[in-house]
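Chapter review. Work through the record for Serine decarboxylase before attempting the end-of-chapter questions.
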Amino acid sequence: MNKADGYTSGVVLNNMAAFFPVNKFSTNGRGPSDYDNQATMIPDHTDDMGGKSHQLEEDFAVVEPKDDESCAVERLHHLTKIVTEFQDHLRERATNHLGYPGNHNCSHYLALSTLLQFNINNAGDPFKKSDHGLHSKKFEVGVLDWFARLWGIDKDEYWGYITNGGTESNFHGILLGREVLPNGILYTSEESHYSLFKIAKMYRMDSETIATLATGEMDCNDLRDKLLMNKDRPAIINVTIGTTFKGALDDLDLVVHTLTHCGFSDNQFYIHCDAAISGFVVPFLKQVPKFTFKKPIGSVSISGHKFLGCPMPCGVLITRRIYINLISRNIEYIASFDTTIAGSRNGHSPIFMWYVLNLKGRKGLEQDVQRCLRNAQYLRHRLKKAGISSMLNEMSITVVFERPPDDEFVRHWQLQCLRNMAHVVVMPHVTVELLERFLYDLTRKRNTWYGKVQPPCLAEDIGICNCVCPVHAYPTCKGGAKPRRALAADRTWLQLEAIMPIKPKVQTYFVY
Ligand SMILES: *Cc1c(COP(=O)(O)O)cnc(C)c1O
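Structure tokens for Serine decarboxylase:
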């Protein structure tokens, strides 16, 4: 177990630097022409500000206005010019955006631009009256009601709020779990989002990291073993609905079954569902088991800027109303109740979410989901045909494939990479045409990357049957030969085990 005690606050603070690495400075002004003309490119390391003093381009410095009034107009022109150029940069980056899970179809939000004249703040509880007049809590509650319906919980039984993103939603969900079960151990899979490990540290909770299958989903055999080792303490379990890298769905039903099997009664566990990405995908599919409040879960979180495509980070947290009194405090001078992680809260994002949900409706979202799934399958099919190791989980929009050995290529397509893998998250802005351009570039460049050097082996990352590296291309998985424990077989086997009594420790991963 990862013990939480023994942290001095100094350690926690020192670790903060690791929690918040400085992002790539994305305003290096490179356009598409620079990318295509790679011979003229000079490797640029100044965009990585980590630790070192950085070089700020002149345009982006904050400059004191001169006293001379005559410059004011000129100055305004100058600022507008920089922002306009930056827009061009953003437009170019948005059209070649494949790896990070954001939907960049955002132009419909221009209709809300007049709202920028107002400083709107939703501080405090969304359901409680506030003296602060400039808030959008009516929109917020409208959006929350919509999510409550989506996730199967009655209006008077839920509580929730619009957060600053999936991370804050996770912070709130796990906080509730900890307050309901103060002595609980946090169980989360090794492929869960990095916020979960940050939460364990910042809340100083004891935690157990659960192994994953090649699909990326939680290995419930490992969960069972670790639950049995800690039977004397309650369990707070994070279930990921769509893992960040492989888009895997942890099996909620199997997690509940495992808890029951290990003798945990309903009041000895709390389940938080992290549905940051797939929370918008899974509810619109008929074929998959639902995550809903009809099952014994305590909270759900989702990001609003990912699949839904809000132009600023935002998220939703929904929980059962009975839990919220555990953390609610009356704060006289905001004339509201403090039930949220953040104090001041974005008053614009609820209106943006409300707007897009009304614009699309369930039907529009369902169409987005179907198109993304089709396009993801198309990409996976094309990669497979081109002889590139790749994987696509069922009901997922995340295509995993071999990591390109060319940093410039990775940066151009804004791919996310991990070990030998890269991924494309097929969001609503990703068209077949964009995928075609990407595939053309990839297959063309691949000829120059590989020759003397071999493509990487991905057997350990995505399973032997999805790997077509020189070692695994032919022997067992091709030509009708019997696959060595394919991914699907792996899963069925686990599910069977859920129905039948659980045997002693079994190997659910691949054997070579
Ligand atoms: C992106 C993500 C988060 C965090 O969401 P933010 O909105 O970026 O804070 C949490 N969980 C998963 C699975 C994610 O993919």
